[in-house]
């Protein structure tokens, strides 16, 4: 994967991390008020639109994945499958910037869990 592609993804991941932090913060301070919920919904929508996938309700788990991806970028081994060390296809990373596994490994694991 080229450096400029990684830089682009790093930017997206950083923005995503900020959005997730915002949502967590809003949830923590919402305290039953309904104004904050609207903001959370809006932020959720933004993430879905920008990142092209639906966030799960578990924001803290998502945050961890994003931070781990940023960590891999910082250490210079972003874009490699953690299982087989093969390069993950840039197309996959575009859809799922914090993907840890290449498609074949992911499919193997998913078929095992089924
Ligand atoms: Zn793999």
Structural account:
The protein is mostly helical and 114 residues long. It has one domain (3-113): DksA, coiled-coil domain (Four Helix Bundle (Hemerythrin (Met), subunit A), Up-down Bundle), CATH 1.20.120. Helices cover 69% and strands 0% of the residues. It has helices at residues 3-30, 35-51, 59-75, 90-95, 103-113. Helix 1 packs antiparallel against helix 2 (35-51) and helix 1 (3-30) runs antiparallel to helix 3. The mean pLDDT is 85. Zinc ion binds at residues 81, 83-84, 86, 101-102, 104-105.
Element layout with pairings:
Layout: H1 3-30, H2 35-51, H3 59-75, H4 90-95, H5 103-113
Helix pairs in contact: 1-2, 1-3
Zinc ion is lined by residues 81, 83-84, 86, 101-102, 104-105.
Descriptive tags:
114 residues; mainly alpha; Four Helix Bundle (Hemerythrin (Met), subunit A); 69% helix; globular
Binned strand content: under 5%
Biggest sheet details? none
Which compounds are bound in this model? zinc ion
How many domains? The number is 1
N/C terminus separation: 32 Å
Spell the H/E element sequence.
HHHHH
CATH domain fold name:
Four Helix Bundle (Hemerythrin (Met), subunit A)
The tally of beta strands, per DSSP, is 0
The low-pLDDT segments are none
**Count of individual helical segments:** 5
Alpha-carbon Rg, integer: 16 Å
What general outline do the C-alpha atoms trace? globular
CATH superfamily: DksA, coiled-coil domain
Mean pLDDT: 85
Helical amount among residues, as a percent range? 55-70%
Q: Mind telling me which CATH architecture this is? A: Up-down Bundle
Determine the structural class based on helices, strands and strand pairing.
mainly alpha
The level-1 CATH class:
Mainly Alpha
């Amino acid at each position: 994967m080229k450096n400029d592609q990684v830089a682009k993804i790093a930017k997206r991941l950083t923005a995503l991390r900020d959005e997730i932090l915002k949502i967590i913060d809003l949830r923590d301070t919402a305290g039953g008020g309904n104004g904050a919920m609207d903001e959370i919904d809006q932020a959720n929508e933004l993430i879905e639109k920008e990142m092209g996938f639906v966030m799960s309700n578990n924001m803290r788990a998502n945050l961890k994945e994003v931070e781990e991806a940023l960590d891999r970028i910082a250490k210079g081994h972003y874009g490699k499958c953690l299982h087989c060390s093969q390069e993950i296809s840039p197309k996959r990373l575009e859809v799922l910037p914090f993907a840890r596994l290449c498609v074949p490994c992911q499919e193997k694991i998913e078929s095992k869990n089924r």
